[in-house]
Write a structure and sequence with these properties.
The protein is of the alpha/beta class and 279 residues long. It has a single domain (10-275), classed as Rossmann fold. It is built from eleven helices and seven strands. Helix 8 runs antiparallel to helix 9. It is globular, with a radius of gyration of 18 Å. 44% of the residues are buried. Bound molecules: S-adenosylmethionine. Residues 24, 27, 31, 42, 73-75, 78-79, 96-98, 101, 123-125, 140-142, 145-146 line the site of S-adenosylmethionine (SAM).
C-alpha cells in the first residue's frame, strides 16, 4: 500500500477520483514542488520536442501582431519570455497560481532583461482581468491541470477581445491504435521512472502522466472551445498525436470562411493524419 512504498498516497489517485478542490490542491502541490526541475524535466519527458511546439505557438501569435497577450498557467515563463523577445513592443502578462513557478519565471525574465512582461499570481478559473482586455490569450500545458476545463477556456475567452486569438498547446493521447499502446507504456511506466530517477519525484510525474491520460481528446477540446464562444477552431498534432496546438478566434461563427487557417492546421484529424504531422 501507499505507506509501504513511501510514496504520497494523496498523489496516487487518478483525476477522475478527485473533487475539483482536491484536484486544484494536488496540482498546486505538484508544481510548488517541482518548480526548480521543471524546465529540465520538460526537455527529458518530451525528448526536447516541447521547444519546437512552443516555437510553433509563438510564430502563430506573432502573425496576429497583438498589442497585449495573456499567457495563462505560464509556469516558469517559456512562452511569455519567447513572446517578449519576438514582440518587444507588446505587453505580455504571465499568469499562474504557483508562486514558486512564478519565482523561477521572474528570475528568467530578469536575466533576459525582458521589461515588457508582467507577472500575475492568479487562479485561471477566477481571473481578475477585465473583459476583452487582451488581443491574444495563450496557454501551454496548463489547461489539463485545471479542475474545470470548460470554465478555464470560458475565462480565457472572456478576457479576449472580439476577433482575438486563443491558442492552446497541450499534451494529448494519440487516436491511432498502433501508437496508443506505446504512449500508455510511456505515460504509465516510463514517465514515473524518469521522475524517480532524475528528480526523486515519482508521484509528481505520475500525476503529470495521469492528467494527460484523462484529458480531452483533440476533437473534444475543439468542441469545448466552440461552446466557449470561439470560431474557426483548428488544431495541429505533434509527435504522433502526443501533443496538439488548438487555435480559435473569438466571435467568429463556427467554420467561418473569414479566417483562413495555416495550411498545416487540421480539423477532426483522422487517426493516420497524426502520423503525418510531425514538425
Ligand atoms: C505543466 S505547467 C505549464 C507551464 C508552462 N506554461 C509551460 O508550457 O511549460 C502547468 C502550470 O499550470 C499552473 N496552474 C495549475 N492550476 C492553475 C490555476 N488554477 N490557475 C493558474 N495556473 C494554474 C501550474 O502552477 C503550472 O505552472
Amino acid at each position: 500500500m501507499a505507506e509501504s512504498t513511501g510514496r504520497d498516497p494523496e498523489l496516487r489517485a487518478n483525476d477522475a477520483d478527485l473533487t475539483p478542490e482536491q484536484k486544484q490542491a494536488r496540482v498546486t502541490q505538484v508544481f510548488q514542488k517541482i518548480c526548480e526541475d521543471y524546465d529540465h524535466m520538460n526537455d527529458v519527458i518530451s525528448f526536447g520536442r516541447h521547444r519546437a511546439w512552443k516555437r510553433a505557438l509563438v510564430r502563430r501569435v506573432v502573425q496576429a501582431r497583438p498589442r497585449a497577450v495573456l499567457d495563462v498557467a505560464s509556469g516558469t515563463g517559456d512562452i511569455a519570455l519567447a513572446l517578449a523577445r519576438a514582440l518587444p513592443e507588446t505587453r505580455i502578462v504571465a499568469c499562474d497560481l504557483s508562486e514558486n513557478m512564478l519565482e523561477v519565471a521572474q528570475r528568467r525574465f530578469e536575466a533576459a532583461s525582458a521589461s515588457n512582461i508582467e507577472i500575475s499570481c492568479q487562479d485561471a478559473l477566477h481571473m481578475r482581468f477585465s473583459d476583452e482586455s487582451f488581443d491574444v490569450v495563450t496557454t501551454s500545458f496548463g489547461l489539463r491541470n485545471l479542475p474545470d476545463f470548460q470554465r478555464g477556456v470560458e475565462q480565457m475567452v472572456r478576457v479576449l477581445r472580439p476577433g482575438g486569438l486563443f491558442i492552446c498547446l497541450e499534451s494529448s493521447y494519440p487516436t491511432n491504435v498502433l501508437v496508443r499502446p506505446f504512449f500508455h507504456l510511456y505515460f504509465s511506466h516510463l514517465m514515473p521512472w524518469i521522475g524517480r530517477t532524475f528528480v526523486a519525484a515519482p508521484d509528481e510525474y505520475q500525476w503529470l502522466a495521469d492528467s494527460t491520460e484523462v484529458f480531452l481528446s483533440k476533437d473534444e477540446l475543439a468542441r469545448l472551445m466552440e461552446r466557449a464562444g470561439l470560431g474557426a477552431v483548428h488544431y495541429r498534432s505533434f509527435m504522433l498525436g502526443g501533443a496538439a496546438l488548438h487555435t480559435g478566434i473569438k466571435g467568429v461563427p463556427h467554420r467561418a470562411a473569414a479566417v483562413v487557417p495555416p495550411a498545416r492546421f487540421e480539423r477532426a484529424t483522422p487517426a493516420l493524419g497524426e502520423l503525418c504531422s510531425i514538425p
